[in-house]
Specification:
This protein has helices at 5-19, 41-55, 70-95, 105-121, 123-139, 147-153, 155-171, 177-189, and strands at residues 192-193, 198-199, 204-206, 212-213, 218-219, 224-226, 230-232, 253-254, 259-260, 265-267, 271-272, 277-278, 283-284, 293-294. It is of the alpha/beta class. The longest helix is centred in the first third of the chain and has 26 residues, at 70-95.
């Protein structure tokens, strides 16, 4: 029997009714409050670009920056960064609020401005750590000709620039925005680092594609990972209602000077001692003593 105009309209209306039934959405529906800003992916991508331009001037941002103009260019970029960060942090704060506390818009915006200023104040320290990551990538790869090649080309530096900024926002308890930033870097580079992870200086990821670093990982200094490495969690425990227990340490701890070769998988709250070497394609769920070489 062919569809008539009436039957098609009936199908469309019935489908709209079913899709609009909030009782069936079960956590898939986020109800916005009037006046609340929304996180913006294009704006957050611009924020990533500005952070890279401020932290690595001349490689990102203005292509004519020099020692005479760098102060001006960074000043302009920091001002723009502060404005955009404030709006996006405010959006994150609104998104993370249920709107039941009766807070007015102005205190939320002021709080966002405070957090944006605190993040910007951390950027010199972030640059200092990022410089050690660049050094580690350069010294750890015989194919690298100079620092400029590492900064311009290596996905690890792109991902780590984003991660180290997102981690500072995470430490400031900014909701949602840090996770979006690292997921944007994940989409760009194939490197998935949760902003909650703690990563020391002189960190590098060779090639990078497929690397996963979980939220509660703690990684020491001078650590090197290769492509495909997973620092993940085992199946997590459930509460009395059968729901996963959140916010518990569940990812690996890596000491200083650890090397983990390609496609190795390390799961659970295990400790990999300083100087240990984990071979390619290893599946590991137990502690490793310092200086140990683990092979398949």
């Amino acid at each position: 029997m062919p569809y008539t105009d009436d039957s098609i309209n009936h199908i469309l209306q019935r489908t709209v009714d079913e899709l609009s039934d909030t009782q069936r959405m079960a956590g898939l529906f986020h109800q916005h409050h009037d006046g609340d800003p929304l996180p913006s992916i294009p704006v957050l991508q611009e924020i990533i670009g500005l952070c890279r331009a401020v932290l690595l001037p001349g490689y990102y941002g203005q292509d004519r920056v020099n020692s005479a103009t760098v102060h001006f260019h960074i000043g302009v970029e920091v001002e723009r960064l502060f404005t955009l960060l404030t709006t996006q942090i405010e959006a994150g704060l609104c998104f993370g609020s249920d709107g039941a506390d009766g807070a007015t818009e102005q205190p939320c915006r002021h709080k966002a401005a405070e957090l944006a200023a605190q993040l910007i104040a951390k950027l010199p320290e972030v640059r200092g750590t990022l410089a050690t990551d660049v050094e580690a990538a350069y010294l750890g790869d015989p194919a690298a000709q100079n620092y400029g090649e590492v900064i311009s080309c290596y996905p690890a530096i792109k991902a780590l620039t984003c991660f180290r900024v997102a981690h500072e926002l995470y430490q400031l308890d900014v909701p949602l925005i840090p996770r979006i930033l690292t997921e944007l870097a994940h989409s760009e580079t194939g490197i998935d680092i949760h902003p909650g992870a703690q990563i020391g200086s002189h960190f590098t990821i060779d090639h990078g594609t497929g690397v996963v670093i979980g939220a509660t990982c703690i990684i020491g200094h001078h650590v090197k990972l290769y492509q495909g490495v997973t620092l993940g969690a085992k199946s997590f425990p459930l509460d009395e209602n059968g729901n996963p227990i959140k916010n518990i340490p569940r990812h690996p701890l890596l000491g200083d000077h650890v090397i983990v070769y390609s496609n190795a998988t390390i799961l659970g709250r295990v400790s990999i001692g300083s100087g240990a070497v984990i071979g390619a394609n290893v599946w590991l769920t137990h502690d490793v003593e310092p200086g140990t070489v683990v092979q398949r």
